[in-house]
Write a structure and sequence with these properties.
The complex is a heterodimer. Chain A is of the alpha/beta class. In chain A, helix 3 packs across helix 4 and helix 3 runs parallel beside helix 5. Chain A folds into two domains: about 200 residues, Rossmann fold; about 40 residues, no CATH class. Helix content of chain A is about 40%, strand content about 20%. In chain B, strand 1 and strand 2 form a beta hairpin. By secondary structure, chain B is mostly helical. In chain B, strands 1-2 form a two-stranded antiparallel sheet. Classes of the chains: A alpha/beta, B mainly alpha. The interface between A and B is medium-sized, with 26 and 21 residues.
């Protein structure tokens, strides 16, 4: 097991009169090698939730265990946890500060107290993993395109060799090409290293294509936690909380209503195509 | 961690004070400050205390919230108290080593502490009950007469309101960048002064970049809406005095007169 979250509650600005409960009794288990999509509306508590996982925010009540150890124990090494649970914030390119890309990626491993050689080795490896062109390594991070900057920032977290990688809206504000770059890079990363990934997003299409488990948060509550097909079966409820299932889910459900015997649990356009074609074949065959 | 700063913050609630014209509140703050420095008699301070208490009560801002804002200036208050306590000449009360506490010093220290605390409470009460936009509107209108002397009142007011508006944004931004760097193993608590100052570089560089980016974006957005300064510019909600405002002015004048009378006769 990897991370166990046990009934955490979090209240913002406690005792000021502006109190807001951001998380309500959230519990879940995150296993190794999972690829989880965390979705929810703005203000649903998803950003607050992921900051609990690496100890940046301390829960008002409840417990979190990483590899069987209570992270709120007095002598627990929070900085070690942060290197094991890597968190990439929204717009991570805003945290770049060094004069060249390579130095910036070195910042994380250097903070872990590694030797110069190990630090640079890890930085090279991380930059290779995100697929950045080697010619760019010694350029200023501020000369890059949006998608490239973001990959550098992700490399900055990867260089700490985390076991779990959390990405908060990694595709926000990017054009379609940049989005493909980032998501492709994450997919590639998983194949190569087997890292656990939690992808925070509100694009159902992005999430449906890649993940094997979806958590839906609404108003601080973990509403669904299931396989994508099972979660999207609730597409009417998802709509009520301002979210939506992928477009194929709607098409397939409409076709089913119209009398076609298609599979409504498909997740991608390709799967939908196959399901529709086989359904047509069957009909033709019967005639 | 940075959210604890309450100076200049607005407290959202409904009250007579909140609804007052910002010009009245500015004038009120001025009168209050003057009244604090009228003298050092106990009667005078009783009057000031009563006035402050009534305003706080009327403003619907919890006293706890105002007191919380005092924490950040406590060091200043304590220092001035200590200096007054030990460095005033007069009738000696206690000797500690080479230092002497005098009767005059004690009295002075007490008044100084009260004066400072009231000063901060009074002025923070104004910002707590007035939105930054209202405040700068009030300043712009209240100081409008300076235009005669070629002072760019509108531009100064606009700069002020932008600066005020940016404070919470930059605080939030700092918080976010600090967290992002902490997620990369940065440590802001460890080490000596130089190490700590160095640890701030990964926060300050991105913060400056983002401040410039935001300023650029804002300038662009303002130009896109044809903003060109005060010339011929009208307001959606022009400030207008109501009956309550006139009554408030009257009460303020009355307060000042009473205190001056106390000062002269008691």
């Amino acid at each position: 097991m990897s991370i166990i979250v046990d009934k955490i509650n979090y209240i913002y600005e406690i005792g000021t009169g502006f109190e807001r409960q951001a998380l309500k009794d959230v519990s879940c288990v995150i296993e190794k090698n999972e690829f989880i999509g965390l979705i929810g509306h703005t203000g649903s508590g998803k950003s607050t939730f992921i900051q609990h996982l690496n100890g940046l925010i301390r829960a008002t009540s409840g417990n979190i265990f990483y590899e069987g150890q209570d992270i709120y124990d007095k002598d627990y090494d929070m900085r070690k946890l942060r290197s094991k649970v890597g968190l990439v914030f929204q717009y991570p390119e805003h945290q770049l500060f060094e004069t060249d890309i390579f130095k910036d990626v070195c910042f994380g491993p250097k903070n872990l107290g590694l030797s110069k050689m190990d630090t640079e080795l890890r930085a090279f490896e991380a930059l290779r993993l995100v697929g950045l062109d080697e010619n760019l390594y010694y350029q200023s991070p501020f000369d890059l395109s949006g998608g490239q900057k973001r990959r550098v920032a992700i490399a900055g977290v990867l260089a700490m060799k985390p076991d779990v990688l959390i990405l908060d809206e990694p595709t926000a504000g990017l054009d379609p090409k940049g989005r493909e770059e980032i998501l492709g890079c994450v997919q590639h990363l998983r194949e190569e290293t087997g890292i656990t990934v939690i992808l925070v997003s509100h694009s159902m299409e992005d999430v449906a294509r890649y993940v094997n488990r979806i958590m839906v948060m609404n108003d601080g509550i973990l509403m669904y936690d299931d396989t994508p097909a099972n979660v999207f079966a609730h597409y009417k409820e998802l709509e009520q909380i301002g979210l939506a299932a992928p477009n194929v889910t709607y098409i397939m459900n409409d076709m089913k209503k119209a009398g076609w015997n298609v599979d409504t649990s498909v997740l991608t356009v390709e799967q939908a195509r196959d399901s529709i074609l086989s359904c047509i074949d069957q009909n033709v065959y019967r005639k | 961690m940075l959210r604890d700063i309450t100076i200049g913050q607005y407290y959202q609630t409904e009250s007579v004070i909140h609804r007052l014209d910002p010009r009245v509140k500015l004038m009120g703050t001025l009168v209050f400050i003057i009244s604090l420095f009228l003298g050092r008699s106990v009667w005078l301070y009783l009057g000031v205390t009563a006035f402050l208490a009534v305003i706080i009560k009327l403003s619907n801002v919890p006293l706890k919230f105002i007191v919380k804002g005092l924490k950040s200036v406590m060091i200043l208050v304590i220092f001035s108290a200590i200096f007054n306590l030990f460095l005033t000449d007069g009738q000696p009360l206690v000797h500690i080593w080479k230092l002497t506490i005098t009767k005059e010093g004690t009295i002075l220290a007490i008044f100084m502490v009260i004066r400072l605390l009231y000063l901060i409470m009074g002025s923070s009460l104004m910002t707590l009950t007035t939105t930054p936009n209202h405040l700068t509107d009030g300043l712009e209108k209240g100081l409008g007469f300076l235009k005669v002397f070629k002072v760019p009142v509108h531009e100064i007011a606009m700069m002020m309101s932008i600066a005020l508006r940016f404070i919470p944004i930059l605080i939030e931004e700092t918080d976010k960048i600090m967290k992002a760097q902490m997620a990369r193993g940065a440590n802001f608590e460890k080490g000596n002064l130089i190490q700590r100052a160095k640890a701030m570089i990964p926060v300050l560089v991105p913060l400056f970049i983002s401040a410039f980016r935001r300023a650029n974006e804002l300038a662009m957005a303002m130009e896109a809406r044809c903003y060109h300064g005060s010339e011929g510019r009208t307001k959606m909600k022009p400030l207008k005095y109501t009956k309550t405002d006139y009554i408030a002015y009257l009460l303020l004048a009355l307060y000042l007169v009473i205190l001056i009378v106390i000062r002269i006769f008691l």
